[in-house]
Specification:
single chain, mainly beta, Neuraminidase, 7 helices, 13% helix
Length: 520
């Protein structure tokens, strides 16, 4: 017996005597302990000298005490494992707890240490374990130094590593009696599962080298439809609108096809959306300014046109002017359905602000038969809108140097003066989406002057506070004009301009944003 074990033995002699013949006494060696892994492999534990100490924990998948102490056990193991080379070993003594149940329980609670069953109760008898959870501390010779609760083990491990006297073993450990009949648990995995994939919708379209400003919708049959404009350069006279489809159940996008071509009056920003009657809409700004025009100009002389499809975007109606006089109006961000059932289309006015950005929305309650214009927001463009549970509408607007936010408590009739948010904006498009669970996502370039990186943040309180930004793209190049959509299966889809060479699509679940590390 080494000095520390002897010191502990003398201090805890009274406690040792109290255990009588009921299992291992303090100061005694555990010797070989026979265990069985959940995979059915026999293990004879006797290699105590390979580590500084061993903690044997008797646990149960079914008692509330083990579940309640699980987080503390994980933290204690983490603290003493790497730097102090203390091995934790879990023993599940109750025979009715199946290997599958044990593994599921341990994985759900983040137990990253060996766990075993105790067929025939040999280990339970050897240690004299009576309840779960209950722990035993052994030194490098396999000598018992301490037995007690998780809380007592914390103090015992601290004393052991400091080389000081041990606390006395606990005479009584509160817990669930080993062998007590308990119902099987409902085991919920708190770590979730990550779903993430991404791809370019196309590699190259001959004759159309530049691609920008994409939009996405889910057709009634579950297909994903994406549109964008392409041409020799932004606002070139050969600019057209393309459409690509990803059929439901497929991971492959169709070959892009030109959907709108209007020589001399090129189509610009466009959005796709699906109304409650199952019609798919394409709404875009047609550049009606005088030719020739410079690259990147013409936006202030756009008029809105639309077409609809009743067969999931396979065939379309003739093009028609949208609303009334829309000179200078431009769509950009995806629509939402308001609490009153209205379909809301965010719009900017590029012409009539006299140097001040104007934004608003138009809405319909009858699937596009009639439309109503909301009040004006001044000081930002390309609004992206959500509605909170209390009915308040919140709009985030594009403007340099920071995204600004406005609110409406009367359904959009009036808006507060837009105020700067914490998020930067390099004069680039943004997209915000309220998920079915009420959480909100915002995708944007959180930069002063660059359209890279592309960031995403999440809010669990309807946009009042936000998470730390994550990166969607970090390489040099332009990654801009995102659109965020949640489809009927709960998946999150994000599309954006990829270096103006293509349009990129990301599909993910919310766990990808929050489950950044799993215990290992």
């Amino acid at each position: 017996m080494n000095r520390l074990s002897f010191c502990f033995f003398m201090l805890a002699a009274g406690a040792s005597a109290a255990w009588g013949q009921n299992g291992l006494k303090v100061g005694e060696k555990a010797g070989t302990v026979d265990l069985l892994s959940p995979e059915g492999l026999p293990v004879a534990m006797d290699n105590y000298d390979e580590r500084k100490a061993t903690v044997v924990l008797f646990l149960s998948t079914r008692d509330a005490g083990t579940s309640a102490k699980a987080q503390a056990i994980v933290a204690l193991n983490h603290k003493h494992h790497e730097h102090h080379r203390v091995l934790f070993v879990g023993v599940f003594p109750d025979a009715e707890q199946s290997p599958k149940e044990i593994r599921a329980f341990c994985q759900a609670h983040g137990f990253n240490f060996p766990v075993y069953q105790d067929p025939g109760g040999k280990a339970t008898k050897r240690f004299g374990a009576r309840v779960t959870p209950e722990g035993f501390l052994l030194d490098q010779q396999g000598t018992l130094l301490y037995r007690g609760s998780e809380q007592g083990l914390t103090a015992a491990l601290a004393a052991f590593e400091a080389g000081s006297a041990m606390p006395a073993s606990e005479m009584t450990v509160k817990g669930t009696e080993i062998g007590k009949q308990l119902p099987p648990p409902t085991i919920v995995d708190p770590y979730g599962s990550i779903d993430f994939s991404s791809e370019l919708i196309f590699d190259k379209i001959p004759g159309y080298p530049v691609h920008h400003c994409s939009s996405i919708t889910e057709a009634p049959n579950g297909d994903l439809l994406v549109s964008w404009y392409s041409g020799s350069y932004e606002s070139s006279d050969d600019q057209v609108l393309f459409l690509s489809r990803r059929p439901k159940g497929s991971r492959v996008w169709s070959t892009p096809e030109i959907i709108v071509r209007s020589p001399g009056k090129p189509p610009g920003n466009a959005i796709l959306f699906t109304d409650k009657a199952g019609k798919v809409w394409l709404l875009w700004g047609r550049m009606d300014g005088k030719q020739p025009m410079m690259r990147g100009t013409g936006w202030d002389h756009c008029q809105l046109f639309y077409r609809t499809s009743s067969d999931n975007g396979e065939t379309w109606t003739e093009d028609k002017p949208f609303f009334h006089d829309t000179m200078g109006w431009l769509p950009r961000n995806l629509t939402i359905f308001a609490a009153d059932g209205s379909l809301v289309v965010p719009i900017s006015d590029e012409l009539h602000g006299h140097g001040v950005d104007l934004s608003f929305f138009v809405s319909t309650k009858d699937n596009g038969e009639t439309w109503t214009q909301s009040g004006i927001m001044r000081g930002g463009e390309q609004p992206t809108i959500i509605q909170r549970a209390d009915g308040t509408m919140v709009a985030y607007l594009r403007v340099r140097p920071n995204i600004v936010a406005a609110e409406s408590r009367d359904g959009g009739k009036t808006w507060t003066t837009p105020k700067p948010t914490q998020w930067k904006n390099p004069d680039s498009g943004i997209s915000m989406r309220r998920l079915e669970n009420g959480h909100v996502l915002l995708v944007f370039n959180n930069q002063d002057n660059s359209r890279t990186p592309l960031h995403i943040v999440r809010s669990t309180d309807e946009g009042r506070t936000w998470s730390k930004p994550l990166y969607l793209e970090t390489n040099p190049g332009e990654y801009s004009y995102p659109s965020v959509l949640q489809t009927s299966d709960g998946k999150i889809h994000i599309i954006y301009t990829f270096r103006r060479y293509s349009i990129k699509h990301i599909e993910m679940n919310e766990d990808w944003l929050t489950r950044v590390e799993r215990p290992d």
